[in-house]
Structure formats: C-alpha cells, structure tokens
Write a structure and sequence with these properties.
The protein is of the alpha/beta class. The protein is 42% helix and 14% strand. It has a single domain, classed as Rossmann fold (3-Layer(aba) Sandwich), CATH 3.40.50.450. The chain has helices at residues 35-40, 52-70, 90-104, 117-127, 158-167, 179-193, 207-222, 241-261; strands at residues 17-19, 22-24, 76-80, 108-111, 132-137, 151-155, 172-174, 202-205, 235-238. The strands form two sheets. Strands 6-5-4-3-7-8-9 form a seven-stranded parallel beta sheet, with helices on both faces.
C-alpha cells in the first residue's frame, strides 16, 4: 500500500486540491481541512500565530500603521546616536542643540525614541516648539519611548522601522553611537549610492569621534577601489550645529527647485 493510501480519503497524486491560492498535489498530513474551517474552529493549538504567513500580516500591519501615522508630518530630519550617552555629556548637549536648531528651521525631528542622544534630540525639538517623533523597536530588554516624544510608534521589525526613517526624513544626522547608529548610517549610504532613494544629506557630527571612520573609508575602501571617488562626497563631517542646519536647508531648497523643473533625478 502506498503512503498516500494510508490517509482516509486518499486521492491520486496527480489530482490537485486547493487551499485558497495554494495548490497541493499530495496530502502530507491527515485532516488538512479548509481555510474557513481553520479560521472558525476555536479548538486546537495556537502555534499558528507564530508561523511565517501570519507574520506577513503583522509586517503588513506595521507598514500600514507607520505610513498612516507619519503621512502628514512636516519635513523631518532623522537624528541618530547612542542610547548610552549621559545627560551631562557634551554629546547630549549637542543632541539638544541640534534638535532645537532643526525645530527652529522648520523641521520635525525623528529619532529611535530611546534615551541618550535620541532623548536629547527629541527634547531639544520639543522645547523649541517643534514636532518630536520617536520610532521605537521591540528589544529583548525593556526600553520605553522617552517623555519628549509627541508622536511615537513602536515596531516589532527593524526593516519596517528603517523604511519609516528613510521615507520620512530629508536628512540623516549621526552623532557618536554604536552598532545601531552605524547600521542606519551605512544603510542610508548604500541606498543613496545605489540610487534606490533620492540623494539626501548624511551628516556625521563630531570630528573627533568620526574622523577614524572617515580615514578608513578613504584609505581602505577608496584606496582599494571598493567605492568610487565621488562616494566620499555622500558624507559630511562637522562639529558645527549651524553647519548641520545649513547643509540640510540648502539640500531641501535644491531638491525643491529640481522637483519643480522635473530634473530631480539629474542631480547626480
């Protein structure tokens, strides 16, 4: 007796059965049932909520929530930096100053919503009367959105959160930070370099902290022809809050002018 014949109501291997858009040619387990049956039957295990098809719906829901919440925010700038930065440090004060200056220039400020530099930038924007946004992430250790966030969204998935940063930011400003800051930095560089997104300013704030990285990019990556000479121009390095704002404002103005002439894609 064949293996398929062991199942009740076994059918020919060539006879397909359909479960929604899914076609099955052979039963691999007994009592597969219909989609409606699985939906409406209250009995049975709940492991299905952890399966990949169900995760797709959660992912879709995160994108819908994010797009819906952020669709009407004003022009915004993303500020990144370490969550471990102490409030009495120069880097925290720089975050405050940058958040405040961006708000006064008419930009909303988007951060990861956590403590440290993120809290500083949110606080600076809020105290200056600007719009302060936090995009949190579910982590193994507990972390809440800081109290200076006006609009906060918590994400399960990093890639959904990353999309919101890129889609709703006119520039990235990176203060000293760790792996998370580097992750956002190099993803933005890759997207801009490969023209997957329209070019926008990527600013490293803190020459003492970032000079080593800039030297490595120039000497190792450019020096061995792993990047093009023009790619170095994708990064700005500064210690000046005023220069941060100037770079972003000038880029926004240039982008607006290019969009009006239909030449936005020719700025490369």
């Amino acid at each position: 007796m064949s293996a398929d014949a062991e199942f009740e109501g076994a059918r020919s291997p060539k006879t397909p059965r359909f479960r929604g858009p899914i076609m099955l040619r052979r039963d691999r387990k007994k009592g597969i049932g219909t989609t409606d049956q699985h939906l409406l039957d209250e009995r049975g295990p709940v492991d299905w909520v952890h399966t990949d098809p169900w995760r797709v719906l959660r992912i879709q829901a995160e994108f819908i929530e994010g797009f819906g919440a952020l669709a009407e925010v004003p022009s915004a700038v993303a500020v990144f930096g370490s969550s471990r930065t102490h409030s009495d440090s120069a880097e925290f004060q720089a975050g405050l100053a940058i958040g405040s200056a961006l708000a006064r220039a008419g930009f909303a400020v988007i951060t990861g919503g956590g403590p440290g530099v993120m809290e500083a930038a949110n606080r600076g924007a809020s105290e200056a009367g600007g719009y302060s946004i936090g995009l949190g992430i579910e982590l193994p250790f507990e972390q809440h959105l800081n109290e200076w966030v006006d609009l906060g969204i918590n994400f399960r998935y990093f890639f959904a959160r990353k999309t919101m940063f890129v889609k709703y930011s006119q520039a990235f400003v990176c203060l000293p930070g760790g792996f998370g800051t580097l992750d956002e930095l190099f993803e933005a560089l890759t997207l801009v370099q490969t023209r997957k997104i329209t070019r926008f300013p990527i600013i490293l704030f803190g020459t003492e902290y970032w000079t080593g990285l800039m030297d490595w990019i120039r000497d190792s990556l450019l020096g061995s022809a792993k990047i093009a000479p023009g790619d170095m121009g994708l990064l700005h390095l500064t210690d000046s809050v005023d220069e941060v704002v100037r770079i972003i404002v000038e880029a926004a103005q240039a982008r607006h002018e290019l969009s009006e002439t239909g030449a936005l894609e020719e700025q490369w």
